Amino acid sequence: MSTTDRPGVDRRGFLKRAGLAGAAAAGAPMLAPARADAAGIDLDLDLDLDISLDRLFGRGRYQWLVGDHHTHSQYSYDAMYTIDRIAAGAREHGANWIVFTDHGHAEHERSSVEPTGRDVLAAQRRYPDLLLWQGMEWNVPGAEHATVFFRAGKDQAPVLREFERNFDWRLTGTEASSPENEALALKALRWLAEQERRRRIHAPVVFVNHPLRNGRVSPHELRAYRDTAPGIVIGMEGAPGAQADGFPKPRGNGGARGGYGNNPGENSWPGFPAEAYRTFGGWDWTTAKVGGLWDSMLAEGKPWWITTNSDSHYNRGDTLVRPQVPDGWYDRTGKYPDPVDSGVPQLTAPYADFYPGEFSRTVVGTRRRGFDGVLEGLRAGRIWLCHGGLARQLEVGVYGGGDAETFGGRLRVRRGENVTVVVSAVTADRPNGSGAVPRLARLDVIAGPVTGPAADRDTMTAPGTRVVRSFEPRRGTGHRVSFRHTFRNVREPFYVRVRGTDGRRHVPGGIEPAMDVIGQADPFEDLWLYGNPIFVDVR
Fold first, then answer.
1. Name one Pfam family in it (predicted).
2. Which of 174, 278, 281, 424 could staple 395 via S-S, CB 3.0–4.6 A?
């Protein structure tokens, strides 16, 4: 069946215009001797599949909940919002779950953990439809930051304080990059695993935050975190918060999306190239570069999921401001006074963030609505991510051998069978924060071979990974657009992941995201979405 038989796009014509027809042809040996074909289809009109759509996409099995695992309140030394205000703002923007992650700090450990817990419980009572966690942003010894959260019932605050006191680099003097400090980070992860084994805490989760903002987290550290505490350290921010920092500012001096305007420092890993310190369409270089660091970890065949979030400290356009306080206020109290309403929208630094759900969305497929459901969905990698409302829904299913899997799943097939990936999205039908309805211009299927554990723990390339299929939806706003791609006669294990774009910025002559320009990066003018991978094991 040709790509012109049904709504879709002529693949070779598209790739030729993008200068990639030769690259697509060269990609065939990736699954050698497999042959791939593709068809643009509208699944509402054509059910020419040998598996039901409900089973393919897990419809009826999962509730998809929007959330954010990285927010800050007045209990952070560099933020201002009350817990209640963050929860209310998240609710206004369609979020269902939030993790409050105030920074590790000496005064935070002394004075802030228990009051934060009381405020979280009060917000939970006021907004019973939200799922609210008290976590923290951990200053990781020898590295930078990570989200840590879990459930511990009445012992939540004491356990968080114990972790912070013993393992946060601000409290232990272990900021510098060194083997000894890296070892302390791994000790902290083993401690979390031990607390879970003893049932002192339930379902701890760790995400590495803004991994390359300062180049502080080396590839071998990411692998060490993952392998030391599998099922606990489950991934990283594929895109950082602070996305509004790239807006051209009214008085000039624009910042960088996510705060990624930095250069190597004394604690940076020396192997990162200069471009690793920038975002690409708002996404971290680890994620945005096809065949890069994220793909090198997926090529090992081990789970490593990505997220996106607000990193909310001061939200662009808000009229709330923090009252003036004497120097050293936070160091004495562990908390700033409640913000006050100035009546004037704030558009300059430090107002670089959005509310949870306002721009960045981490969408998790849960078997049941509740704390355990979200934790299980996160750990399973049943996650897709979107910026600026680019799509209302993304569904990806991979099937073969009579079975099917969606995001984060692992499909098992016999050697020589065909494997088909079906991608379906519902396009946006309402304006985002820019006042315009975003247009989903293209969806890409990316695939790469699973080659096993990396011999070099600092490897950050996966040469076999590439875009194997691109699809340009022709239908307008508020419609379902879908296509499929089949890998025939599969011989070796591989993984599949999907991304999408509004198509407004690419590298010259190609389809890859372009590096964001510091001070000239309106986040609404370069939107992308990503899905987490599905692995295919071949017997």
1. PHP
2. 424
